[in-house]
Amino acid sequence: MTRRAFLAAASTCVLALGVAACSSSGGSTTSAGGATGADATLTYWASNQGTSLDNDKQVLTPVLDAFTKQTGVKVNLEVIGWNDLQTRIQTAITSGSGPDVLNIGNTWASSLQATGAFLPYDSAAMTAIGGPDKFVKAALDTGGMAGQDPTSVPLYGLAYGLYYNKAMFTAAGLQPPTTWEEMVTAAKKLTVPAKQEYGFSLAAGSYTENVHFAFINGSQNGGAWFDAAGKPTFTSDANVQGVLRYLDLMQTDKVVNPSNAQYDNGTKSVNDFAAGKVAMILNQNNADSSIVSNGMKSDAYGVVPFPSPSGGQKIATFIAGINLSVMKSTKNKDAALSFVKFMTSPETQKTLDKPFSALPVLQGETPVFTDNAEEAKTFQDIYATMSKPLPLVAAEDQFESTVGKAMNALFAKVATGGTVSATDVKTALQDAQDQVTAATGG
Amino acid sequence: MATSTSSATSSAPTAARTAAPSTAGAGTTRPRRRRGRATSRDHKLLPYLLLAPAVVMELLIHILPMLVGIWMSFVRLTKFFLANWSAAPWAGLGNYRLALDINSSIGAKLFQSFLVTIGFSVAAVVLSWGLGMAAAVALQQPFRGRGIVRTLFLVPYALPAYAGILTWNFMLQRDTGLINHVLADNLHLTGDRPFWLLGNNAFTSLVVVAVWRLWPFAFLTIMAGLQSVPTELYEAASVDGAGNLRSWRSITLPSLRPVNIVLVLVLFLWTFSDFNTPYVLFGTAQPPAGDLVSFHIYNASFLTWNFGIGAAMSVLLLLFLMVLTAAYLVVTNRRSSRA
């Protein structure tokens, strides 16, 4: 490398990233075959869907090899954990050099669309990946803001369910709960703090999990987090009461081990559930593979929709899942689109839905993620009839991070012996709203 | 400001030109000149050429990003302009106003974080310096195995920061951590298992971990400083009947004064802008009691992708530390010139 080249590289790095470090893995590899797409190389960032990053790599590698065989396009795979994914995407957007194709949490779709860094799937691009009609409509609607070309398309569908331990419920003479009140009663009956047994385990230290339940519980009360103009309305009474109801599982109902305030990801509560320490967890259907890999048989647990309080709206989940986006900066647009087409083809979907425990995002497909027909039907029903999409607004990711962190702090306060009142919840949500307003220039 | 720098740069060549004739003779008598126009000016330029790579790299790696950061603090650099920075609208002092407005939640949180950081820095510096001093004095006299003890003391400083702090994170867990296992299960000192990484205990944990990481540095520096204190002084003092404490106060401390001035300053600057410790120790949790200002700025920027406000907070932090450092140096220098 000549000095001039080195200096040029260094200066571009500095200029592009400012204070961030130069990343050596971020750049997409350019190659000769950009126009035709043949013998090009794509960089693909996959999110962590399986039991570990390595597990993801093992599952995806044969699939990507099949794609290379079909098209001659090589794919460089990098699997990224959830704690880093958002920051990595952000850095890629800021520097203008990132992967060609990447997975995103579908709830970030509108926010990432607003950055202008992703390729819109206009009618030509949509045709290139097989047309919009192949997707389940509700899933495709998460691809971006209404009235604009989506910048992401669904890849894996996910929904929340209430997992319960059948043996524990039978031993206590309990039926699976259908209302919030029944759920709390059952949880209280199954909580024996002296034996370290609790009715529930929550990922109370994970801001992503927390914000999902802030949204779901608020929605059950008929609350909205944004108004029609896209302005945050976090502090409405419905939202405050919904958040408080969720916090009260630990605070007043005492059916959650206070230690859960340190559970910063869903895996920890899944482990507790599989080990028989807790009777119930709230998780997306991709928990199946983790539960089984932790040694619990798939017929030892059942799934029912997350219940709402009597008289509340029957919302048990948001439309969760993973979407697939192409960066605008890609040098291999055609190859990238053919890769998206391949990943969302029925064959690939069938191959991947099982190891990643995902719901189908294509029209007319049946779930293959579990052999348990009853469970498959329950999740399909939740996804299709009891779901509400998270707000499709540009500030959605900021809503997630600020409200989620606020709930982390509230749970921490409860766990360390403090009390949280409705006023405290309202203050915390107001702080979150101020941050979002400042960041969106509202 | 711009005018003063331009006049400074333009004065350098004129100085070189006026100085040129005096050395011109040397150039002309040189045998076998390759190029006809090699004049003394080449000699004048040589040191600058040798310095150039270092200056360029310093500009690229230090100065330029800093200037970019300062520019960022004056624009509304939110997510909408991440892919195209130049389009970010001018915010003037808007970001600063927001960061300094104690009545808004953002300003109030920053101020609270600032107070926590001051408390943390003072505690960490005092403890690190105290431990370092005690250890250095204890190891001043040779004894068997002194080398081994010295090495042991330096281990925390030699360990990679992340590995060390992550280990603390494991030990401080409520249910599975070693600390609670010893305190609650074996010694029964605490009734209920305390949380060490949430609530108010987070501050204690943070100080302990930071001191554990820093005190070996203080120990090393003071130990090096002690090498230069003549042993005759101590011998004379003990002949005069001074005890250990008295000779520490009257000989060790004054001799170490220059070392201590720099050491305390460096320790303070490091702890005040400590990012690694809270980042690794708390992960995605952000307990208010352990919310150090660097960590706070990181969260303020990356949590909502609002880099304008984060940059404004960073500039404020920089200004604060610069003013404080300048004041500290003025005060300590004045005192040492009086002494």
Can you offer a commentary on this structure?
The complex is a heterodimer of chains A (442) and B (339). Chain A has helices spanning 3-17, 53-71, 82-95, 109-115, 123-128, 137-140, 166-171, 180-189, 207-220, 237-251, 266-274, 287-293, 333-343, 346-353, 373-385, 396-415, 422-440, and strands spanning 41-47, 74-80, 101-105, 153-158, 160-165, 198-201, 278-284, 301-304, 317-318, 320-326, 387-388. Chain A is of the alpha/beta class and 442 residues long. In chain A, strand 1 (41-47), helix 2 and strand 2 (74-80) form a beta-alpha-beta unit. Chain B starts with a helix and ends with a helix. The longest helix of chain B is centred in the middle third of the chain and has 34 residues, at 105-138. Chain B is globular, with a radius of gyration of 27 Å. Chain B has helices at 2-28, 40-72, 94-100, 105-138, 146-158, 161-171, 178-186, 201-227, 231-239, 244-272, 276-282, 293-304, 307-338. With 339 residues, chain B is mainly alpha-helical. Chains A and B meet through helix 1, helix 3, helix 4, helix 16 and helix 17 of A and helix 2, helix 4 and helix 12 of B.
